[in-house]
Design a protein that fits this description.
Oligomer: single chain
Order of helices and strands: EHHEHEHHHEHEE
Shape: globular
Largest sheet: 6 strands, mixed
Structural class: alpha/beta
Strand content: 5-15%
Radius of gyration: 17 Å
Distance between the termini: 22 Å
Length: 230
């Protein structure tokens, strides 16, 4: 049996402000830092030891990983950053307040953009200042790899699940004890894949910030069970 720990980053400043965040590189809030520290305490108390970590290119996930690992005295372990683990790109919605957007477009439309599997947000214009094409973090990417808005389905199919299959699963099968610090939709997509959640049921899945989620996997990496550590 293999164990995998998934950790959604602690509350970010834009989580606190109820904004669509996506690929915008916002920081943790004070509460988010405390959540990350608490996650490290929980993991340490439960006896979890990792020898490899994965995270995204976004500092809210990176800092959550660092704070939690430092708390559990594991800050020294190897760390792999992958843009493929970035949050879902919310396109032209990024930075907008969710409640105010609901007034403009309707509560139902905003719910579909946020929660549905196939619904894509309005795309971001390539000359918009929110585009990441001029961000040094992404200079190594083919421009065609950079999204300007994506559905949960597109995020899964184009980057999250291919990265999981090609990079993470071989490490698990080698016996590496792994923690992934990422984002709400990144982890929803991975959970959908692992648990074979339907397109309709995935709308109901919400992964809380800063709470370690453990998956126990069999020899074929099929889930045996999963649970939160509190």
């Amino acid at each position: 049996m293999y164990k995998l720990v998934l950790l959604r980053h602690g509350e970010s400043v834009w989580n606190m402000e109820n904004r669509f965040t996506g690929w915008q590189d916002v920081d943790l809030s004070a509460k988010g830092e405390l959540q990350a520290k608490e996650a490290g305490k929980i993991l340490s108390k439960a006896g979890y030891i990792f020898d490899l970590s994965y995270t995204s290119y976004l500092k809210r996930a990176i800092k959550t990983l660092h704070i939690s690992l430092e708390e559990s005295k594991l800050l020294w372990i190897p760390e792999i950053k992958a843009w493929e683990l970035n949050e879902r790109h919310y396109g032209a919605l990024e930075g907008l307040n969710k409640a105010e957007t609901a007034k403009d477009y309707s509560v139902e439309q905003v719910h579909n953009w946020r929660r549905s599997f196939k619904s894509s947000p309005p795309l971001l214009n390539k000359d918009d200042k929110r585009c990441v094409t001029n961000d040094a973090k992404y200079f190594s990417l083919d421009p065609l790899q950079i999204p300007y808005g994506e559905s949960l389905e597109e995020m899964m199919q184009k980057r999250v699940i291919p990265y999981w299959t090609d990079q993470i699963t071989p490490a698990i099968l080698e016996g590496r004890k792994i923690i992934i610090s990422a984002h709400g939709n990144t982890l929803r997509g991975l959970a959908k894949h692992l648990d074979h959640i339907s397109d309709q049921e995935i709308e109901k899945l919400d992964i809380p910030t800063g709470v370690p989620l453990v998956y126990e996997l069999d020899a074929s990496l099929h889930p045996i069970t999963h649970y939160y550590l509190t």
